[in-house]
Write a structure and sequence with these properties.
The complex is a heterodimer of chains A (428) and B (427).
Chain A (H helix, E strand, L loop, with lengths): L5 E9 L6 H10 L5 E2 L12 E2 L14 H6 L2 H17 L11 E7 L6 H11 L19 H7 L3 H10 L5 E4 L5 H14 L5 E9 L3 H10 L9 H4 L14 E10 H6 L6 E10 L14 H12 L6 E5 L6 H15 L7 E3 L2 H4 L6 H15 L1 E2 L22 E2 L4 E7 L4 E8 L5
Parallel strand pairs in A: 4-5, 4-6, 9-10, 9-13
Antiparallel strand pairs in A: 1-7, 1-8, 2-3, 6-7, 8-14, 11-12, 13-14
Helix pairs in contact in A: 3-6, 7-14, 11-12
Chain B lengths: L6 E10 L5 H9 L6 E2 L12 E3 L6 H4 L11 H17 L1 H6 L3 H9 L1 E7 L11 H7 L3 H11 L4 H4 L4 H10 L5 E4 L5 H14 L5 E8 L4 H9 L20 E2 L1 E9 H4 L8 E10 L12 H13 L9 E3 L6 H15 L6 E2 L2 H4 L6 H15 L31 E8 L3 E8 L4
Parallel strand pairs in B: 3-7, 4-5, 4-6, 10-11, 10-12
Antiparallel strand pairs in B: 1-8, 1-9, 2-3, 6-8, 9-13, 12-13
């Protein structure tokens, strides 16, 4: 039995550099930064006061159901809008006679209670700092069922399946920064095994709030270049000093390649392979040798039936932390060998920051557009090479070049590594 | 006669209010003993919903020995790691690995998958910020400035939803394909389904699948109560007098192996995985369809996946969470697939509560235990069938299975439905 092949026929994005895929791609090609001083709350006291926020976002212009939007958190709204764009782009929607064959696979952010809601519980139950549950029985406690629903781990998935009428396979995964990549990998597998014929797959996240920023500040993972936000994210540069937290969503429509051809769909690229490994080293890092990410990339290439020589571009995880970038480059060296110098490598986190659970999904979309246009987007802010990151970084400006196959890496806290392989449709 | 299964189950572990071994939990079920009691973790005397099946009298260090690890994980992770340890030890995989030369052992590790169904987070995690909020007195500027003087620097790492995945990997050096599924109530069952799917296509040779959760916290209990989902004191699945669900906490895990791989080392086989089906109803965040349409489809998909007809099913372990709407639609779904003569139906939540993300995995482990014993345990709290429900063969007394195949159902928010089929293994 020949294995099913999977085409990407729709794209949608909401990112710090654009509220749709086209605007995001224009910004990334130009190396335009979406980083700045945090506007959504007073971050002046935090060690890191910068982030990559989504700007001028108006979900009600794209999602007609107001009641549904009430149930949606900020990140769920990103998801609904990006998914709407992806489906419109694909020219395909679940219909009553196809909805059972539609699935949905999402990489969702951590449970995030709204800061104002946490402040309410604090006021009623813990004025002195110590939690006393009796306060919850106070009549002033709103116990708002909508707020509760919003906080459930699969609420984003529920809203997506409800709004678009998806009735088949559905899953929500979370492996921190690898979530988006793993959600797409899951979608690929579900399509291959015939558990669905169409998948809406992607990721969404927003941790740009006092708790989210605080949590990463505590770990010392964020860049503190508060005076030069646009320069703060500089993956692979010798002076890099941490990542910049972003937010957003990315969604793709995946379907059987033959079905897509039959309906005359525009095929952006083939999602040709998925690799997935566990570093089992430390919670926050992979081994400096790249062990862990190595296996993910090797598996992805083997899964796609491609040789290293077929790869022209790698959209790196490239968070701009000292350890990640070093370990990722070591892994690329092991996997690519001599071919590495011919592979263009860039991290678009240099422009849009780290979208955490959405990162892998948005960056998958970036790979797809890179293949379509034959452009490897620039790794902004790369000035000083690091001998530990000896890869062919796309520096200065984006590079026009034919891209036959592209890899997208996503490595998460907790040690999950995801690598996706995208292939030029003309080669199909 | 169905084909030989390509995936077998060689280890199981569990912890919940009813016990900390698979056999202890099974014994409680068979004896009709429920662990549901007034909540002791906080003063619940004034609470509108004050019953739960708590894991009590357990020194966390006896669950997971690694002292340093306790600083890096939360209660739900502790349960997950304990259950996974139990399943992995029972499978005999670590001992087998020791017999391998170093290169083969490294390959072995790369071919071990890990799949977790995680609750995804608790309200209480955020309460670690309360002292800081008190200090800040409403000023976010102060909140930011004093952050590092107040909150544990490891706060985020302690609360990662994928901690169990991460630490199973580190503890057992499992390094293959993996997923952490944050799919509310069906997360644990979906972890099993995905692990089996990965083995079938050769992405791994063996995998541990674990579900873990601790929904039992004041805010969650209150919210469930306000949604009308909580029973006061007893969980009575499918009963005319059922009034809602009751929380439990804990974890359960299984080790699955590609049968061809397992044959190399001749482990004791607890059961065979036959198939799974997953379907949603696009009904909303907490709503379910009254007619059970999505669950019926999930069951049919699982039967198709197993190349089996409905009359091969020996008994059903229902989700049976005890709420009015879920049980009614579940009965409707069973009726849709099995007609007027379904096989014996049981449910276990009356004994150890609703473990949310862990519930499907724990039900599966108990279904395997039931297959071993050849009995379908009674639902001890069941008194009278509900005339408004499609009739189901539910009983307070044990029943006889019709065959050695068990169907396990798992449902959750987002109108999610999952069905798993397993069979007893014949030596």
């Amino acid at each position: 039995m020949t294995r099913r092949r999977v085409a990407i026929t729709g794209l949608g994005m909401v990112t710090p550099v654009g509220n749709n895929a086209a605007d995001t791609w224009t910004s990334l090609r130009a190396g335009r930064s979406g980083l700045g001083v945090i506007q959504s709350f007073d971050a002046s006291g935090f060690p890191t006061r910068i982030g990559a926020e989504v700007k001028g976002f108006k979900p009600e212009r794209f999602v007609g159901d107001r009641k549904l939007l009430k149930l949606a958190s900020r990140s769920h709204r990103f998801a609904l809008v990006a998914a709407e764009e992806a489906l419109a782009d694909a020219g395909l929607r679940p219909e009553p006679h196809t909805c059972h064959r539609w699935g949905c696979s999402v990489g969702a952010g951590m449970m995030c209670v709204k800061f104002e809601e946490l402040q309410t519980v604090h006021r009623l139950c813990a004025e002195d700092g110590e939690f006393n549950p009796a306060g919850l029985l106070n009549r002033d406690f709103p116990a708002d069922p909508i707020a509760f629903c919003r906080s459930q781990s699969n609420t984003g998935l529920a809203l997506l399946t409800r709004y678009f009428g998806i009735c088949g396979y559905a899953t929500s995964v979370h492996t921190a920064c690898a979530s988006g990549g793993q959600a797409l990998g899951t979608a690929l597998k579900v399509l291959r095994r015939g558990a669905a014929d169409f998948m809406l797959a992607g990721g969404y996240d927003s941790m740009l709030n006092p708790i989210g920023i605080g949590a990463f500040c505590l770990l010392g993972a964020l860049s503190t270049d508060n005076d030069t936000p646009e320069r703060a994210s500089r993956p692979f540069d010798a002076t890099r000093n941490g990542f910049v937290l972003g937010e957003g969503a990315g969604f793709l429509v995946l379907e059987d390649l033959n079905t897509a051809r039959r309906r005359g769909a525009r095929i952006y690229a083939e999602l040709a392979g998925d690799g997935n490994s566990l570093s089992s080293y430390r919670i926050t890092d992979s081994h400096p040798s790249g062990d862990g990410p190595v296996q993910a990339m090797q598996q992805a290439l083997a899964d796609a039936g491609l040789a290293t020589e077929d790869v022209d571009y790698v959209n790196a995880h490239g968070t701009s932390t000292v350890m990640n970038d070093r370990s990722e480059c070591a892994a690329l060296r092991v996997v690519m060998g001599k071919h590495l110098e011919r592979v263009a490598v860039s991290s678009t986190k240099s422009c849009m920051g780290h979208l955490i659970a959405a990162a892998g999904a948005v960056e998958a979309g970036v790979c797809v557009l890179a293949i379509r246009d034959g452009i490897a987007p620039v790794n902004a802010n790369f000035l000083e090479p690091d001998p530990d990151c000896d890869v062919n970084v796309v520096q200065g400006k984006s590079r026009q070049m034919p891209i036959r196959a592209a890899l997208s890496n996503s490595f998460g806290f907790g040690g999950s590594n995801s690598c996706l392989v995208f292939q030029q449709p003309e080669d199909l | 006669m169905s084909h030989a299964s390509d995936v077998c189950i060689t280890g199981a572990g569990a912890v919940c209010g009813a016990g900390r071994t698979v056999d202890a939990i099974w014994d409680a079920i068979v004896c009709g003993h429920s662990a549901i009691a007034p909540i002791s973790r906080w003063d619940s005397s004034e609470w509108p919903a004050r019953y739960a099946a708590e894991v009590t009298n357990i020194d966390s260090r006896t669950l997971v020995e690694d002292r340093k690890l306790h600083k890096l994980i939360s209660r739900t992770d502790l349960f997950g790691l304990y259950a996974a340890d139990g399943a992995i030890m029972q499978s005999g995989l670590p001992a087998y690995r020791e017999t391998l030369p170093p290169e083969a052992a490294a390959h072995f590790n790369d071919r071990c998958g890990v799949f977790a169904g995680s609750g995804g987070g608790n309200y209480q995690n955020n309460y670690d910020f309360f002292p800081l909020l008190s200090m800040a007195g409403g000023s976010i500027e102060t909140f930011g400035r004093e952050l590092q003087n107040s909150v544990n620097p490891m706060w985020l790492l302690r609360n990662l939803p994928n901690n169990v995945l991460c630490h199973i990997g580190i503890r057992h050096n499992f390094r293959g394909v993996n997923a952490c599924i944050t799919q509310q109530c069906v997360g644990g069952a979906l972890a099993v389904a995905e692990a089996a799917a990965a083995l079938r296509v050769g992405e791994a040779d063996r995998a541990v699948a674990v579900g873990h959760d601790t929904p039992l916290e004041p805010e969650t209990v209150l919210h469930y109560h306000r949604l009308g989902l909580m029973s006061e004191d007893t969980l009575r699945p499918f009963d005319a007098a059922r009034r809602g669900t009751i929380f439990g906490e804990g974890a359960a895990a299984v080790v699955l192996e590609a049968s061809a791989q397992a044959r190399n080392r001749q482990p004791k086989i607890l059961g065979e995985f036959l198939g799974s089906g997953c379907a949603t109803e696009a009904a909303g965040v907490v709503e379910v369809r009254a007619d059970g349409e999505g669950l019926a489809r999930a069951i049919q998909l699982a039967l198709d996946d197993a190349s089996m007809s409905s009359d091969s099913v020996g008994f059903i372990v229902a989700h049976g969470n005890g709420t009015r709407a879920s049980d009614a639609s579940e009965a409707a779904a069973i009726h849709r697939v099995f007609g007027s003569d379904p096989p014996p139906v049981t449910a276990f939540k009356w004994a150890f509560g609703h473990l949310v993300a862990a519930s499907g995995t724990l039900d599966l482990v108990m279904a395997l235990r039931a297959l071993k014993s050849g009995i379908v345990p009674g639902v001890a709290t069941f008194r009278a069938s509900d005339p408004d429900l499609h009739p189901l063969p539910v009983s307070a007394d044990p029943q006889k299975p019709r065959s050695d195949v068990a169907l396990v159902l798992s449902r959750g928010f987002a109108a999610m439905n999952l069905a798993l089929l397993v069979r007893a293994h014949e030596d």
